[in-house]
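Thread: Newbie trying to understand structure tokens

Hi all, I'm a second-year student working on a class project, and my supervisor (Dr. K.) asked me to get a predicted structure for one chain before our next meeting. I've only ever worked with sequences, so writing a 3D structure as a token string is new to me. If someone could post the tokens and maybe explain what I'm looking at, I'd be very grateful. Here's the chain:
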Amino acid sequence: MSEAPRPRLAGKTGIGNLRSAPQASSGLVLQQVAPSGKLRPYVQCYWQARGQSAGEPTGVELLHPDGGMGLLFNFGGALERDGERLWGTCWADGPKRRTARLAVDGTLDLLGVHFQPGMAYPFIGEALSSLAGEALTPGEALRRLELEALHERLLETPALAGRIVLLENYLAERLQRHGAPEVPALRTSLAWLQRHQGQASIAALVEELPFGQRRLERLFQHHVGLSPKRYARLLRVAHSRQLIKQGGATALLTDTAFVAGYFDQAHFIHDFKAVTGLTPGGYLDHVRRRYGREGQP
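---
Reply by user tm_fold:
Sure, no problem. This is what the structure looks like when written as tokens:
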């Protein structure tokens, strides 16, 4: 296949709350690259994450779920994710229900693809519900994806720009070879939930569709790997997190809950902790430590 055009630097896309910065407080350096035109409807971004401190882990990155899945390629040592050490070269990172925690040390050297929610199926070729959950699926368990062979080619191409070209060519070839037909109802449903930031009911969404809730559930399990209700909760909690980051030290959690569509603190705290593992107050403390008193714009 001919060489793909050089991708643009990514804007606000990314994985979890990993941020494009010279160096995060955890010692992580992240670079993000936007996909080229034909892959933009499917791919949020490509990213490279490296640790800068030698020795023991210097910090932990929170990888928040957004309904999308990804592919990971490891060029460093063992990963430590959610307290478990993982040895391997490549994985599929299925749709997550909860925030993952990645330890950062000087051996960390990862390259990844992060797909748009609901848009990985043409590349994966099976129902996303089979990959959903908190565990990574090793490349050797997904032979048809040929991730191990792709890892070898990436390993031989150390420059990030060259690796992005290899990823783009790999994805473009799989899309051409295995591409599934468009599912307009899926895009409509995802856009509707995103527009409402997860606050509106699934019943209200179904009223906008030419079919019922049972078919919507099957559509989401197949293409997203999560139920519509669970995806909506991820959106709602993500909106809450953004409000807390924007507010910084002055953030009032009662106001945050109200703006995010929660009318009682108990429900707000329950949903927030179920997804992130932190209470809203605990996350506010994290934001203050990471971004300072002014928060993040």
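A couple of things are worth pointing out once you decode it. Residues 28-178 form a domain with the Jelly Rolls fold (CATH 2.60.120). The two ends are 41 Å apart (CA to CA). Feel free to ask follow-ups in this thread.
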